[in-house]
Amino acid sequence: MSPLLITEKDVEDLLRMEDALGAVEDGLRALGRGEATNRPRQRVGTREATVNIMLASWPARGYAGFKYYTTSRTGIRFWVHLIDIGTGELVAVIQADRLGQQRTGAASGVATKYFARDDASTVGIVGTGWQAQSQLEAVCAVRPIRRVRCYSRDKDHREAFAKKMSSLLGVTVQVAASAEEAIRGAEVAIAATNAPQPVIHGDWLRAGCHINAIGANRLETRELDDAAVGRCAFVATDSIEQAKEEGGDLLEPIKRGRITWDGIHEIGDVVAGKVRGRTNADDITLFKSHGIAIEDVAVGALVFERARDRGIGKSVAL
């Protein structure tokens, strides 16, 4: 069988957030049960360009795959290659910018489903870019959100984000004048930025808050200060192995004794029922997302099968 080439437009037509949420939750559960394998991101490159690659296998689902993406001054380009693990055949090559946005949002949605209070109805979000959109969409899909406050450095960006997401999600999205104003009082706090220094501080957090921190994935970058991490009764990440290589939000507080690696859990273990997350209504919980390959394989498999079944995509002769 010739592999399918699936474009960004195809992904847009085939993938909805509710689909991504289900696929990512299933993939994380398989990882927690030891039924899937994930490898941390590897990077090579120069000052001009970097190649990033991530690999995962999910035998029971029938697939292995990898995502690679390049970053340079001309932009970022994402691709997922999906392989039939039974035959070793390449079955799909997927343009994966939209796919990656949706799976990253879905991972936070799954974390919110398992960690946030059931009655959480308010969100504070710092960052109003491409990734912030799917973060908010996913959270609104799993909790009865009624009000959102958003903040980013660019006034025009945050106003456009508030208008767009209010219309898309049918919730009230208000513009905040500062990150602190966005986060104070929020029952779900989201950091989706490329800021090198913390944008959420511990003394802003209300009791019972759940935090999704998704922007920082290098040791030298952070979105949360030590106090924010230190106040968390439960801390989870998608991959401890990957966090040890690139999780500045966790490594810096660990260096100063605010938390320990023994106190950090993988979300797959929670979804698989091995670990309990929130145990008290007033607990502050944290999901530190790095983005892992099993999420790409899970969502990529769904996109491929839909494309195949609906006759979407272009068959490529090799």
The tally of structural domains comes to 2
Q: State which percent range the strand residues make up.
A: 25-35%
Number of strands: 15
The third-level CATH topology of the largest domain is Rossmann fold
Gap between N and C termini, in Å?
10 Å
Q: On the 0-100 scale, what is the average pLDDT? A: 95
How are the strands of the biggest sheet laid out side by side?
9-8-7-10-11-14-12-13
Q: Helix fraction?
A: 25-40%
Label the structural class: alpha/beta
* SSE pattern: EHHEEEEEHEHEHEHEEHEHHEHEHE
Report the C-alpha radius of gyration, rounded.
Answer: 19 Å
Q: Rough shape?
A: globular
> CATH homologous superfamily of the largest domain, by name?
NAD(P)-binding Rossmann-like Domain
CATH A-level architecture of the largest domain: 3-Layer(aba) Sandwich
- Tally the helices: what do you get? 11
Low-confidence regions: none
Q: What does the main sheet amount to?
A: 8 strands, parallel
CATH class of the largest domain: Alpha Beta
